[in-house]
Amino acid sequence: xxxxxxxxxxxxxxxxxxxxxxxxxxxxxxxxxxxxxxxxxxxxxxxxxxxxxxxxxxxxxxxxxxxxxxxxxxxxxxxxxxxxxxxxxxxxxxxxxxxxxxxxxxxxxxxxxxxxxxxxxxxxxxxxxxxxxxxxxxxxxxxxxxxxxxxxxxxxxxxxxxxxxxxxxxxxxxxxxxxxxxxxxxxxxxxxxxxxxxxxxxxxxxxxxxxxxxxxxxxxxxxxxxxxxxxxxxxxxxxxxxxxxxxxxxxxxxxxxxxxxxxxxxxxxxxxxxxxxxxxxxxxxxxxxxxxxxxxxxxxxxxxxxxxxxxxxxxxxxxxxxxxxxxxxxxxxxxxxxxxxxxxxxxxxxxxxxxxxxxxxxxxxxxxxxxxxxxxxxxxxxxxxxxxxxxxxxxxxxxxxxxxxxxxxxxxxxxxxxxxxxxxxxxxxxxxxxxxxxxxxxxxxxxxxxxxxxxxxxxxxxxxxxxxxxxxxx
Length: 474
Description:
Layout: H1 2-10, H2 13-27, H3 35-40, H4 48-55, H5 57-76, H6 80-99, H7 103-118, H8 120-130, H9 136-163, H10 169-188, H11 234-239, H12 250-268, H13 272-302, H14 312-330, H15 337-361, H16 365-391, H17 396-422, H18 431-472
Helix pairs in contact: 2-8, 2-9, 2-10, 4-7, 5-7, 5-17, 6-7, 6-8, 6-10, 9-14, 12-17, 13-15, 13-16, 13-17, 13-18, 14-16, 15-16, 15-18
């Protein structure tokens, strides 16, 4: 028995299997595609205005409030306790969805779901603390793929149960509760990590592998991934905060970590190239999350669920497949992203803007579905490129920090959009007008990066012309 426990504790296979099982059951939520029809239907009997302007905004506010403290807590307690917290939050969320009623109860649902999304960082960071660096690429692929598969299975299963078996939305949520309960159970069997990226770093880092060829990005709310530097900077690593037994208290060590995080952020954003990729990341992710949060309300407005067939699950399944396909395609496209990356950001952001404007101006639900599919596929393509471009230039610790900070900025922007456009205490716009605002928002992003890309291309051409002229001069 002791030999078996020792083999498990030193093997990368066991924690990978358990964390993948946790990720599968966490993401396998067949009721999620039908949240708005459930809330506005006879089960909860809420109005569209209450769902849009009073309930859904709470998720954005709670996610923003919890993201930074949970990010630090996750590293400090070494991931597993936060995965257990995520499981408890998921169970509470679906218990409330099943048995609670009223606007206040549903706002509480959104608060706990904000806790769920804030703790997702533990899932993506846990595996790097229990396996050696030579397995990073493989386990990243497994953890990413399993969430994509689970999201697709959940959407397809939900649609089949609703359309063919006539299962009610209430029982669909009961199935989701069973799935997230299994995820919570899986988290108990995870081995406890002995190190983390910031508060519990190893004194001697392991050998650093080269970067992966490509990074798939999950459709479930927010993506993340980590890579190592091509040429690690020994000075930078030596400067990192290391726990010192006996001569530094917990408070002093925490201040040391926070100061090092500040220095790392300054280093990351000191690169102009990384700054522009991060700017697009934050701006586009804010708009993407906003669309994801309210698109079901638009679908219900175009084709009311009480009088029309609902195909939300099928659309989400296709969108997930297209997103994974476009993400995978990035690994096989040979492009000089340093030269053409900003142009790609501008062009595909224009497609995003066009898709959202189509969803505003059309009354046809199928056109709305098509616009959403195009929007999600374009975003997934671009976020994969941005992820890869940032990851190949940073260590795992700095990438995780930059990822967290980019998402924090995105949440701040999203919160501003929510307060001004959606919240009943702001403009409280109707759902169709909201999508006009979101389309205009992506049009502004398009303008920023098309202008920037033209400046970059012209500057490079002028520089090459100047160098060619100098080389031919007598």
